[in-house]
Design brief:
The structure is a single chain. The protein has strands at residues 2-5, 8-11, 22-23, 40-49, 59-71, 76-85, 90-101, 106-113, 118-129, 132-141, 144-153, 161-167, 175-184. By secondary structure, it is mostly beta strands. The protein is globular, with a radius of gyration of 16 Å.
Length: 187
């Protein structure tokens, strides 16, 4: 079965969700080192949409740090994420776990917070192609099923760019709700 989402076609095994599939008809490269650009320490600026999928334009901004290290000889990475907004007394602390599947040549990205005390939700799954990384999942948000997309760009620069986007119309349109700009931390 083939599934098309946001212009990409995915080969789907019967009974498996779209995020657990490999892109159909695409030559696969060994993407084990695709996230190596994130290794090390970063200063981060985050813009977060306060009320996604409501038509709101209210954003809140945070500053902080990210530290990323590889494990399993680069087949996995762990990222510690800490940002604050002192004016609004807001803090986001999280842990991203990225796991590389050498058979599918794709990454699964999991997110955990200390408030949850566990890895939350399904992973976003995807890969890099042409310098752009796209990762998808389907999850529940405010009682509705939506698609989530992570997009990495500018990964060969000193300031990688990340966006998280939601779609509540099956991937026809996407609303950006999380934007990070990163710069290498100097010692």
């Amino acid at each position: 079965m083939l599934i098309t989402l946001a212009g990409f076609t995915w080969a789907q095994a019967p009974g498996s969700p779209p995020n657990a599939t490999a892109r159909a008809g695409t030559a696969q490269h060994d993407g084990q080192h695709d996230f190596d650009f994130l290794l090390g320490s970063w200063k981060i600026h985050l813009k977060k949409l306060v009320h996604p999928l409501t038509g709101s334009n209210e954003w809140v901004e945070y500053n902080g740090t990210v530290v990323c290290r590889k494990v399993w000889d680069g087949r996995a990475e762990i990222e510690e994420f800490n940002v604050d907004n002192p004016e609004k007394h807001l803090h986001i602390e999280g842990l991203a776990l990225r796991l590389y599947n050498p058979q599918s040549h794709q990454w699964s990205i999991y997110w955990a917070t200390p408030q949850l005390g566990a890895i939350g939700g399904p992973p976003v799954v995807g890969e890099f192609s042409g310098g752009r990384g796209e990762f998808y999942d389907q999850e529940s948000f405010n009682g509705r099923e939506i698609y989530t997309r992570y997009v990495w760009t500018d990964t060969t620069t000193k300031a990688p760019h990340f966006e998280q986007q939601y779609s509540d119309d099956g991937g026809k349109t996407w609303e950006t709700n999380w934007i990070t700009e990163q710069t290498r931390a100097t010692r």
